[in-house]
Amino acid sequence: MTAHRIILVEDNPNDREFMRFAFTDAGIDIEWTELEHGQAAIDWFDRLRPDTSLPDLMLLDINMPLRDGFEVLAHRLTLEDPPPFPVVVLTTSHAPWDHERAMELGADGVLTKPYDLDGLREVVSQLRAHL
Amino acid sequence: MTFDSPRITIDTGARRAIEREAEAHFVAVAESLPALMWMSGPDQRVTWFNRRWLEFTGRSLAQELGHGWTDGIHPDDRERCLEICAEHTARRETFSIEFRLRHQSGRYRWIIDKGAPRFDADGTFLGYTGGCVDIQDRIEATELLRRHAEDLERYAYAAAHDLQEPLRGISLHLDLVQRGIQADDHLQRARDAVDAMRDRIHAMMELTAIDREPVPQGSISADEALDQALALLEERIRQSDAVIVRGKLPKVGGLSNQLSLVFENLVGNALMHGGDRPRVTITAESRADRVVFSINDSGPGIPPERRERVFKLFVRSRDQEHPLSTGLGLALVRKVVERHDGLAWIEDGVDCGACFRFSWPHATRG
Question: For labeling, which of A114, B215, B265, B357 is most exposed (least CB within 10 Å)?
């Protein structure tokens, strides 16, 4: 079975590592592309060409430098032909208005960042549905 | 029942005498009140202002009488104000209007003006009597309170969010330690996260302490304030192999410890974002009403549309995971500077990087 491809937009190196660890721990082989801030994600969307091979999923943090996750979602909405892979927001925020805003901006799901390994495993099982 | 005419004549005369006495009494009272008072005739033309009114507007009685006083109404309030006056006069009703009136200083101040119709004993309309109270201070205080409440709400939300992040890291690292997964590594990183959290809490406490100390008159040495800041940053300057270039700084006003805090945060910010071997230049320029300090770094600079944002609480301009970034430093800078009636802003750096500038009061005697 070939590896799934995930673009991880996350500025916090700990969180990037936790995410890689969680998928490895669950025995899921992932080919990761890591972008460290919102601007990098916006640039990635702008560089998309018809022959670009698309990932299976984009995991997007909200609170990031340069451009935040909301700005990335808003930018995706302005694209003439948005690429058809899901974008799931992964945020520290528990605030319902942040979750609602992400959904209004077209996120395919919003998950709160976990506090422990069980939470991490739960996140992976939810993300699996999008792969 | 009928009255004979001589009796009416006497009564009318006595009534007029009483009315004159009452009017004199009213004027005496009106002159002693702190309110701005006025009286108008049935044609809406004002026939009398008290001394307080004239002191407030800084104009003569002759200038203010009739419709002259309406020159002092703020252009944006004028139409609304005169409309309300006319409507209420037509119906002979009391009114209350809030509008801006030009003060003798040239500035407009909000006042509340209440007017009540006057009638003689026969019920004939004589005009209005009114009094105004200056409510500018109240309006400013309310506005300040509203802004503080907003800041506080934002602060509480952002603080909760921002403390959650390291806490979540600590919790996850410790969970992995407990399960024996790369225990040593995760233990060390949990410790690092604890340090980051402690720094964040320390910065939050500094931010709340700024308002407590009153800003005195006098003179302090900006050079000494910078020395103090650089002493605190010594280790970081050494580690990053930074070059600090400083011009001669003047004597200024304000609080030395707070100026030092501004330098510490701006130089610290320049070290953090200045790239390899950062070069930080600190200069001052004396302008007519303020001293303007500049802290120029050698980093990639900040695009104009992002410049206002970095002064907000818990916003990190770039390199968010820098262990020394609390997201509070620049908010703290702005708060201290504004408390000294100054401004803090960002321009393009002289050769490269970003140039953080802030204005600060001159030294005063006393």
Answer: B215
Distance from C-alpha of B222 to C-alpha of A13, rounded to nearest angstrom: 39
Choose among A85, A86, A94, A32: nearest CA to A63: A94
In angstroms, the separation between the Cα of residue B159 and the nearest Cα of chain A is 12
pLDDT tens by residue, B225-277: 999 899 888 888 988 899 999 999 999 999 988 899 899 999 998 998 888 88
Distance, CA of B103 to CA of B54 (rounded, Å):
10
Asked if A69 and A91 touch (Cβ cutoff 8 Å), the reply is yes
Cβ atoms of A61 and A91 within 8 Å: the answer is yes
Give the three-state DSSP class for A128. helix
Contacts of B198 (CB under 8 A, 6+ apart): none
pTM above 0.80, yes or no: no
For residue A90, the distance in angstroms to the closest alpha carbon of chain B comes to: 13
Interface contact B306-A113, CB threshold 8 A: no
Asked if B131 and B37 touch (Cβ cutoff 8 Å), the reply is yes
Edge-to-edge strands of the sheet including A4-9? A30-35, A4-9, A57-60, A87-91, A109-112
**DSSP helix/strand/coil, B85:** helix
Closest Cα of chain A to B332: distance in Å? 19
Ramachandran category for residue B248: left, alpha or beta (phi over 0 → left; psi -120 to 50 → alpha): beta
> For residue B21, how many other CB atoms are within 10 A of its CB?
10
For residue B333, which of B323, B343, B322 has the smallest C-alpha distance?
Answer: B343
Tokens of B5: 């005419």
Do A117 and B320 count as a contact with CB atoms less than 8 A apart?
A: no
Measured between CA atoms, the residue of chain A closest to residue B175 is: A116
Question: Which residues in chain A have their CB less than 8 angstroms from residue B165's CB?
Answer: 12, 63, 92
Supply angle C-alpha B163, B169, B330, rounded to 5.
40
pLDDT digits (tens, 9 = 90+) for B334-364: 888 988 999 999 998 877 889 999 999 999 8
Task: For Cα atoms B302, A98, A90, give the angle at the middle one, nearest 5 degrees.
Answer: 80
Residue B189 CA to residue B175 CA, distance in Å, equals 12
Q: What are the tokens at B353?
A: 């990087």
